[in-house]
User: Fold this.
Amino acid sequence: MSTPVEKIKERLDIVDIIGSYIKLEKAGVNYRSRCPFHNEKTPSFFVSPSRQSYHCFGCDRGGDIISFVQEIEGLDFKGALELLADKAGINLVYKNSKEISEVAKLTKILEIALKFYQQKLKINDQAIKYLLQRGLKKETIENFSLGYAPLEWRSLTNHLIDAGFSLADAEKIGLVIKNDKRGDISFYDRFRGRLMFPLFDCNGKIVGFSGRIYDDEKNRTTEGKYINS
Ligand SMILES: [Zn+2]
Assistant:
């Protein structure tokens, strides 16, 4: 399995990250800007998408996505890693992970699922059209963080594995279902082909989902119109 640093670099593009702090302009195969780390009038700060690195010819600062975030946010390596892991939807596992409370851990999984379902809805024009036809406004879809669970057996399951989460934990909050075939344990998505309505507590923290049937599926007759996690 790849390390958190490798995963962060796989998932995040240095151009996007640096571009979220300063305005980059295309310069051939690279991007350039006035350096955020020293005062200058002519841009000598370059970002290379192919090497996923940056370099300033004025003050000679340079490095990768992590050192950039360290420098610009004033963070140590671990702090920058945490910030980027959060953006990338990666769970950093520390040796003292036992200290992280059970609730926080489960909430994190719900947050990852929330982003996942939202992302899946964004790329599903038909489902968006369906919601709009039913009188929902675009802002409502955004504000209530509505999502879509693909009609697949393991889309969220695989996403959670990739992000380094425990499926046993995901089962506790009802996102996946455990299949125990004579001791051969596997997991699959609980919500499939459903529009996902997240449920929040009074602090705005996600506590679960309500999934409404959207896609037609054979064998659906045995399932409820709504299922809740
Ligand atoms: Zn510089």
